[in-house]
Amino acid sequence: MTTITVTIDRRAIARPAGQRRLRRAAALLLALCMCGAAGVARAGVLVEGTATAVRVTAEQAAIADVLSAVAGNFNARYRTAIPLDAPAGPAYAGSLAQVIARLLDGYNYVVKRDGQITEIVVFGRRGEVAIPPPARSAPPTGVLSRWR
Fold first, then answer.
1. Is the confidence at residue 33, as pLDDT, over 50?
2. How far apart are the first and last CA of the chain?
3. Cβ-contact 90, 132 below 8 angstroms
4. DSSP conformation class of 9
5. Distance, C-alpha 87 to centroid of its chain
């Protein structure tokens, strides 16, 4: 009787199996990225021109994104008391002041220019009731009114 001994190198078998797993994982990752990228809406803002002639183009961007891009291009700062997450229009054109006015139409805001710096402060939506200051208590009467 003849005995045949077969020696198998485990590394030789594991290498192709590992490569197959790696390829499958890479294909799965690529497929997930492709599907994920198709479902994600990308916001884009393009600001062109000078302070006297500005052109802003926005694709699926919120007002805050557009205002941030405009502020970044024209040495401006902005603060807001409310979230500016409403969608912006697709395009704005005009001077910097006109673009800001069109962008913030429907909001209460102030624009302050100090030399080269422009500051924009947004208080809230137009027509909202402002929070009144606390009522002052009535002045004391009698002996307490003379007490200091």
1. no
2. 122
3. no
4. -
5. 11
Nearest residue to 52 (alpha-carbon basis) of 93, 89, 88: 93
- DSSP lists the bridge partners of residue 54 as 49, 94
Sequence-distant (≥ 6) Cβ neighbours of residue 83 within 8 angstroms = 64
Any idea where the domains of the chain sit in the sequence? Answer: 44-125
- DSSP state, residue 87: B
Tokens representing 83 are: 């979230």
- Take residue 29 and report the two structure tokens written for it: 């990752």
**Tokens for 104?**
């913030």
- CATH of the domain spanning 44-125: 3.55.50
50 phi and psi angles, rounded to 5 deg: -110, 180
What whole-number percentage of the chain has pLDDT above 90?
48
Can you tell me the distance from the alpha carbon of 52 to that of 98, in angstroms, rounded to the nearest whole number?
A: 9
Backbone CA torsion sign across 49, 51, 57, 61: positive
Task: Provide the 10 A C-beta neighbour count for residue 99.
Answer: 24
Nearest CA to 93 out of 80, 85, 102, 84 is that of 102
pTM for this predicted structure: 0.59
